[in-house]
Design brief:
The chain is an alpha/beta fold and about 900 residues long. Helices cover about 55% and strands about 15% of the residues. Helix 1 runs parallel beside helix 5 and helix 20 runs parallel beside helix 22.
Length: about 900
């Protein structure tokens, strides 16, 4: 094998990647090992040596070991290939060892060198050993097949040996090319052809020299040591050739580096190109260039390239982070090398974040000052690290670069450093969308205003837009961003120059009046609300926005900016809870209410997690037949002490916090499962199950799929399910709501409008939506007897429902007079305490299975107002 013809994988980084590339190289390794084993069994073992072995296998193994230790490194761009003097023991072994001993010596000798001397990683060790084995088995088999039984040194033996050597060379080059192609997904054919031409030429030359020596010494094996002379001469010649080539490449490298700095006008682009050029020349994983400000500011700009394509351009750093490396450059003024290990190793933290193994460091020197430093780190390869010649070359490059930067770029770069500092500060304290200050600036200014030396008592206003989510949902997030920018402009217009407006996040804004008074703060709050009431024109659409404002003043009990802002937030929340679009001033009682609400939220979250809920069912009765026709599912919260909490006490909080979503899913599935059990229990008495839906549930993108999945898992007939929604849900996102309701109808589910008459009732919308039932709101039922206006409304609702071919259900029937009046109006169904309170599922089941109890008996002479829960319960028990 030639000194330049047998490559082995030694590069790290892009050649073998940790995922797909490495896996593919392992597969190639297994294939090579399998081929080597097959050739050994079918080709090598059957061979009969033409003459007895002269050279023991272990001596030949030592020769192969030495050949892999005395290597020459040859670079092609980012890859480094290692070539050995293995043709010498290879040709010797063909003639003076048995085929089996030859393969054994070749594989073991090379394996030991790769493991002990080069310390290769497992994947490289396995791959290189496999390709050695394949080259040895193919080479020795080909040699003996071409040589035949001849034992003389004729042209036949020469041809056989040269053919075997060429085959080994080609196998080595082909397998390396395949490994690179598999690991990187590319194959550079011109580069491979260059290696083939050069490797075969030198390999054949090596083999010819060895064959000549063997021919000369054929009859005197004791003189075999003389072969060391031509072998050493070849090795030195190749080293000299590589050295000259490297000198030529170094000159080209320095010329190209200087050209980069001269021809590229943008400093950041020039530095990146220079670092990329430097990294490839030194076969390194990372290259960094740091420019240090001439004045003692303690600041610098670092540009870093690597690993891979990662880059950081002109990043501001503190000179203190440069550590001992910068201190040594300032003291010595000369470049140096950081070895992979040793007592004198200098530690340095690379700005890319990866670990430094070894490195070269060189100072960037101008004519009169030290401008910065250049670092090249982590040599690619496990054969060699950086050396003294590399230090000299990098030092020369750094001097050229320093002069070029000082003459044309450094002033610009240091100016950029100051500009960058101001830009970073502005970005750190301002909102990128609106240009207002951000939370960090707001808290800093509030803290300064609260200092004892301040003149006045700062006042904070917390502004939150009401129903901003509606804009995002209906017009899109880009329209929402434009609205926030417009709101920010109106806030500025409401303030004095000394006041501060900041965007705290989302649709929340903070206002700081450093020398304000509560009276003026309230006036500012009212001015802000008036300014926001004027319509906004967003993308050609008129958008109406309201805001809730909370105000808090710095007092003796407030100790921190966070506490002052929290108080303003609490006041804003109070304004929202009292109807929105108003101003509220913080009071201590508000904080107690918020704390209690937070505590209730935590309890509610725990209740959802632990399943502390039950579903009760209120019967729905046909008002004309007294027949039990359905039941409405109503959730109850079973407290740890056993008491039940009604939905009125926690449902709005569940809606606000989003806990309504898991709770609503559970109620829907539990009720559907129970309805199916009732159907199986009394198939001749079908009940329609009514389940309330919240606005949040309907707005969920996967809501239809959720209902479909519940029906599938509970096996409930879709026609049995009646989903109740409010008019507010219909009016919100009309198009989307229509599509979802249409999808529910396609499933076979019935739909009802709950609390009809209290929302934004519209006949046009009612005609568009595919509803089946109107549920008359409780206030109309309560006043149907005593209030003529309510009676008229109830009559109108029944007439409207029937005209649209809808069924009407009256909620909250509590007296016989109400029942009689609703019957007279023609109302179809009813529910309420007059018939029964909500009851456990077992009670409904007993009602269905008790003979004659499918019809709810309304006793004659029951006093008005008497509730029949106890009467029904008596029947059930």
């Amino acid at each position: 094998m030639s000194a330049l013809a047998k490559p082995t994988i030694v590069n790290e980084g892009p050649t073998v990647r940790p995922l797909g590339g490495a896996a593919r190289v392992w597969l190639l390794t297994a294939l090579l090992a399998g081929l080597a084993g097959a050739v050994f069994v079918s080709g090598v073992l059957p061979l009969t040596p033409a003459q007895p072995a002269i050279l023991p296998w272990y001596v030949l193994a030592l020769l192969f070991f030495g050949a892999e230790v005395l290597v020459v490194h040859f670079q092609f761009r980012r890859e480094v290939h290692t070539f050995s003097l293995s043709e010498i023991p290879f040709v010797i072994g063909l003639f003076f060892a048995t085929p089996v001993d030859f393969v054994l010596a070749n594989v073991l000798g090379a394996f030991a060198a790769l493991l002990i001397h080069r310390r290769q990683a497992p994947i490289k060790l396995a791959f290189n050993t496999s390709q050695f084995a394949l080259g040895a088995t193919v080479g020795v088999t080909l040699f003996h097949l071409l040589r035949g039984a001849s034992v003389t040194m004729t042209s036949t033996e020469w041809f056989a040996a040269l053919s075997a050597t060429a085959a080994m060379n080609l196998i080595g080059i082909a397998t390396i090319a395949a490994a690179i192609a598999l690991s990187e997904g590319r194959l550079e054919v011109p580069k491979v052809l260059q290696v083939v031409r050069f490797g075969l030429m030198v390999g054949i030359t090596n083999a010819v020299v060895v064959l000549a020596a063997i021919t000369f010494l054929w009859n005197d094996p004791a003189a075999l040591w003389i072969l060391g002379v031509p072998a050493l001469a070849l090795y030195l010649a190749y080293r000299a050739y590589i050295s000259e080539r490297e000198k030529h490449e170094s000159l080209e490298f320095l010329y190209e580096s200087t050209s980069i700095l001269q021809r590229t006008p943008e400093l950041d682009v020039a530095l990146v190109e220079l670092l990329d050029h430097t990294r490839r020349m030194f076969r390194a994983q990372v290259a960094e260039l740091t420019l240090v400000a001439a004045s003692d500011t303690g600041q610098a700009l670092t540009t870093s390239l690597g690993p891979g394509d990662d880059r950081q351009v002109m990043v501001e750093v503190e000179t203190a982070t440069l550590g001992e490396v910068w201190a040594r450059l300032q003291h010595d003024g000369e470049g140096f090398m950081i070895a992979r290990e040793g007592p004198s190793r200098v530690e340095y933290k690379l700005h890319c974040g990866c670990e430094m193994r070894d490195a070269l460091v060189a100072p960037l020197r101008g004519d009169n000052a030290l401008l910065g430093m250049l670092v090249v780190a982590n040599r690619l390869g496990d054969v060699s690290s950086f050396d003294v010649d590399d230090v000299k070359l990098l030092d020369t490059l750094a001097r050229h670069a320093g002069i070029a930067l000082e003459n044309g770029r450094l002033g610009q770069s240091l100016a950029q450093l100051n500009d960058l500092k101001e830009q970073l500060r502005h970005q750190a304290f301002h909102d990128s969308l609106t240009g207002l200050g951000n939370r960090a600036l707001f808290q800093e200014r509030v803290a300064a205003a609260m200092e004892p030396a301040g003149t006045g008592r700062p006042v904070v206003l917390f502004v939150d837009l009401d129903d901003f989510k509606t804009v995002n949902d209906s017009l899109g997030h880009s329209a929402g961003d434009m609205l926030l920018v417009a709101v920010a402009e109106r806030l500025r217009a409401c303030l004095r120059p000394a006041d501060l407006a900041a965007r705290l996040g989302g649709d929340e804004f903070g206002i700081l009046l450093e020398h304000g008074q509560m009276v003026s703060a309230i006036a500012v709050g009212e001015r802000i609300m008036a300014a926001l009431r004027r319509p906004f024109i967003i993308d050609g659409n008129e958008v109406l926005v309201r805001a809730s404002v909370g105000i808090a003043e710095h007092g003796s009990t407030i100790e921190s900016p966070d506490e002052l802002l929290r108080n303003a937030d609490v006041a804003m929340y109070t304004a929202k809870s009292e109807g929105k679009s108003r101003v509220a001033v913080f009071e201590q009682s508000m904080h107690a209410a918020v704390v209690a609400r937070h505590a209730l939220t935590s309890k509610l979250q725990r209740a959802v997690d632990e399943g502390q809920f039950e579903v009760h069912y209120q019967p729905i009765v046909n008002l004309h037949t007294n027949q039990l026709t359905g039941a409405e599912a109503l959730v109850r919260w079973r407290q740890p002490d056993g008491s039940l909490t009604s939905p009125a006490e926690f449902m709005s909080l569940a809606e606000e916090t989003g806990l309504i979503l898991p709770l609503g899913r559970w109620v829907l599935e539990t009720a559907c499962r129970q309805a199916q059990l009732w159907h199986e229990l009394a198939p001749d008495r079908p009940l329609r199950l009514a389940v309330n839906l919240s606005a949040r549930q309907v707005q969920q993108p996967g809501f239809i799929d959720e209902v479909t999945d519940v029906l599938r898992r509970t096996a409930l007939e879709p026609a049995t399910l009646l989903l109740e929604i409010t008019e507010t849900v219909l009016m919100h996102e009309t198009t989307a709501s229509m599509e979802k309701l249409a999808a529910l109808k396609q499933l076979g589910v019935s739909l009802a409008i709950d609390d009809f008459g209290t929302g934004y009732s519209s006949l046009s919308y009612l005609r568009q939506f595919p509803v089946d039932v109107l549920k008359m709101a409780r206030p109309f039922v309560e006043g149907v007897v005593s209030n003529r206006e309510d009676s008229s409304f109830a009559s109108a609702i029944v007439a409207l429902g029937h005209s649209l071919r809808l069924k009407v259900v009256a909620e909250g029937i509590e007296t016989a007079e109400q029942l009689a009046m609703l019957r007279g109006l023609g109302c179809d169904f009813g529910q309420g305490f007059y018939f029964a309170r909500a009851m456990p599922a077992e009670a409904i089941g007993r009602m269905l299975t008790t003979p004659g109890e499918g019809r709810v008996a309304i006793p004659v002479g029951v006093p008005a107002g008497r509730r029949l829960t106890d009467t029904i319960a008596a029947h059930l028990h």
